[in-house]
Amino acid sequence: MRFDRSDGVFCHVTSLPGPHGIGDLGDGAAAFLSFLGEAGVDYWQVCPLGPTIGAAGESPYQSPSAFAGNPLLIDLEGLVDDGWLEADELEPVPDFPTERVDYAAVREYKLPLLRTAFERFESERAEDAAATGDAAAAFDAFREREPWASEYALFRALSAARPEDTWVEWPEPLRTREPDALAAAREEHAETIRYHEFCQWTFDRQWADLRDRAAEAGVEIVGDVPIYVALDSADVWANPEAFRLDAGNRPAAVAGVPPNAGDDGQRWGNPVYDWERLAENDYGWWMERFRRLFDLADVARLDHFLGFVRYWAIPADADDPAAGEWRDGPGRALFEAVEREFGEAPFIAEDLGFEDARMDDLMADFGFPGMRVPQYANWREAGNPYQPMHYPERVVGYTSTHDTDTWVGYYEDLPPGERDALHYNLGYDGDRPIEWAIVEEVWSSEAILAMTTVQDLLGLGSDARFNEPGTVDGNWEWRVERDALSDDLAGRLRELGEFHVR
Question: What is the rounded CA–CA span in Å between residue 453 and residue 406?
Answer without folding.
Answer: 8
